[in-house]
Design the sequence.
């Protein structure tokens, strides 16, 4: 019963969470010592939210003028909650690959609707995702996503 | 084999149910709590005592007492590629009830032994490791490709003449009732990697002694879990209870490993045999001689400069390609596909500034015949500022892995030498 109530509570709290493609996620609601630390503001019409999670992982959300997250990145000793960070695109990452020789050691998903990369090794992970159609004018993922 | 397949299917179906449940939970907005509600579990069956399974025959080739063979073959399901495998014997601690398990992926990019439950004899009743609060410990091991979920249990781990007594290992897909449901906090980290496709488990012999130093202080790392009938909750875990690199628990030769593999020609090899030697500078067969020592940072990384760009890098025998960014090389099927083999070069630089050139060859994945198990292939690492020296780096080399904090004749680890 306790667990069911916890699940219901999580639903009511998380109803507005969206992350990539939606509004910034509320990591603070779950992380014990989380702090929001905006590192860059209004460089070219977007802002960056950086959150250091209690797990030691750092996540960044790139938010455009309308409040939509168009890119995210993560790094740290463990993998953060990517369903929370990638929102509706998490299922794309979690789906198994289908190539005859499947890559092992680095994930790369390049679709017209989303690009997701995941690399590193145990104890030092990093990754990022972005929505090509929603990048602000002049935004270069290679240079501008940290 | 049939029994094993049935077990695997059974486990997979349970996992699918668990994943479905986790998806339901998370579907309300992404995340939810770390708990997954479990149905009231039936009591765990206690396996009847049985005689020790017959030991596997010793390998034909004469190997040193501190070395085990490595084979790069197609794995247990015929799909493996650039995957180095070794066998390990695991025993109920302090007993002669043992089982030899083949096809463990030799991985310098992770730490600790992970065994697929479907490869384990149910009679091998390994005792559960408890959390600080006394609950059976579950683990969600994070990998780049996804997570491995299972129980933390103790085993004596035997490799050649070396024994790691009563160390924590992970049993991936453990059949114990309290581990039956993958917690949402685990399932939300990526795909279900299991014990690696084509393998019976993973033998992590990288630079660290335990698999999650950050889990000592953080209870929300989503790696270690306290598991009860109500589900599994993320918890902190003391180093002594974490899944342990077996090498550090050996009585000797416990400061690292040496991996040797023969060169692989253009077109690839249909089979490849090498060895995994225990100890660095402890025996005549594991001395650093002509090799250069590359000290790593605390994360186990060095730096690689390729075509004018310097990025974070590491040596990872568990990666099946060299992953690096080069927009000039054509791609296909997720790998690089140059029209003819490319001879490339990069410079590796240690954390203390020692540097050296690396020449490497990349050939097209499309030029590799279907029966080839080892080849010099590469793949795009995207914009992530990473250079992952996967298994092809190890071809034709002797690579030393000195564990963090361990002393060697060439100074303390962590370092790579090659």
Sequence:
């Amino acid at each position: 019963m306790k667990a069911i109530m916890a699940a219901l509570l999580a639903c009511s709290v998380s109803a507005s969470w969206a992350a990539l493609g939606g509004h910034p996620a509320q990591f603070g609601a779950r992380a014990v010592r989380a702090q929001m630390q905006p590192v860059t503001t209004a460089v070219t019409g977007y802002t960056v939210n950086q959150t250091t999670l209690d797990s030691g992982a750092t996540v960044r959300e790139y938010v455009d003028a309308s409040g939509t997250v168009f890119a995210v990145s993560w790094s740290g000793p463990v993998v953060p909650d990517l369903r929370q960070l990638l929102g509706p695109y998490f299922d794309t990452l979690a789906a198994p690959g289908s190539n005859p020789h499947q890559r092992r050691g680095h994930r790369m998903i390049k679709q017209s609707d989303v690009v997701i990369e995941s690399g590193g090794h145990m104890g030092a992970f990093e990754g990022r995702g972005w929505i090509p159609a929603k990048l602000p004018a002049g935004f270069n993922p290679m240079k501008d996503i940290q | 084999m049939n029994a094993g397949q049935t077990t695997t299917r059974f486990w997979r179906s349970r996992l699918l149910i668990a994943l479905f449940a986790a998806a339901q939970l998370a579907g309300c907005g992404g995340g939810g709590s770390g708990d997954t509600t479990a149905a009231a579990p039936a009591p765990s069956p206690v396996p009847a005592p049985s005689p020790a399974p017959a030991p596997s025959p010793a390998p034909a080739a004469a190997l040193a007492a501190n070395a085990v063979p490595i084979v790069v073959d197609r794995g247990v399901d015929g799909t493996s590629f650039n995957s180095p495998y070794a066998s390990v014997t695991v025993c109920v601690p302090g007993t002669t009830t043992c089982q030899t398990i083949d096809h463990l992926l030799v991985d310098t990019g992770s730490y600790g032994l992970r065994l697929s439950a479907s490869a384990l004899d149910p009679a091998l009743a390994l005792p559960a490791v408890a959390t600080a609060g006394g609950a059976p410990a579950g683990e969600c091991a994070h990998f780049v490709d996804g997570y491995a979920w299972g129980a933390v249990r103790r085993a004596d781990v035997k490799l050649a003449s070396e024994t790691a007594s009563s160390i924590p290992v992970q049993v991936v897909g453990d059949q114990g009732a309290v581990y039956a449901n993958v917690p949402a906090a685990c399932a939300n980290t990526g795909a279900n990697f299991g014990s690696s496709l084509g393998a019976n488990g993973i033998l992590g012999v990288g630079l660290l002694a335990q698999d999650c130093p950050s889990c000592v202080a953080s209870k929300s790392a989503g790696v270690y879990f306290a598991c009860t009938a109500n589900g599994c909750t993320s918890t902190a875990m003391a180093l002594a209870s974490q899944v342990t690199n077996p090498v550090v628990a050996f009585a000797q030769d416990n400061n690292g490993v040496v991996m040797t593999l023969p060169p692989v020609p253009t077109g690839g090899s249909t089979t490849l045999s090498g060895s995994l030697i225990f100890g660095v500078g402890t025996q005549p067969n594991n001395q650093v001689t002509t090799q250069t020592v590359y000290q790593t940072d605390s994360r186990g990384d060095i730096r690689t400069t390729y075509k004018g760009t310097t990025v974070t890098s590491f040596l990872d025998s568990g990666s099946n390609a060299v992953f690096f960014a080069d927009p000039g090389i054509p791609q296909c099927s997720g790998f690089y596909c140059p029209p003819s083999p490319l001879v490339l070069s990069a410079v590796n630089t240690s954390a203390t500034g020692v540097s050296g050139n690396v020449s490497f060859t990349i050939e097209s994945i499309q030029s590799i015949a279907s029966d080839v198990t080892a080849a010099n292939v590469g793949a795009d690492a995207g914009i992530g500022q990473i250079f992952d020296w996967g298994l092809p780096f190890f071809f034709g080399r002797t690579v030393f892995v000195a564990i963090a904090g361990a002393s060697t004749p060439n100074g303390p680890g962590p370092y790579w030498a090659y």
User: Anything to note?
Assistant: The helical segments of chain B are 2-26, 184-187. Residues 300 and 321 of chain B are 19 Å apart (CA to CA). Chain B touches chain A through 74 residues (CB under 8 Å). The longest strand of chain B covers residues 146-159.
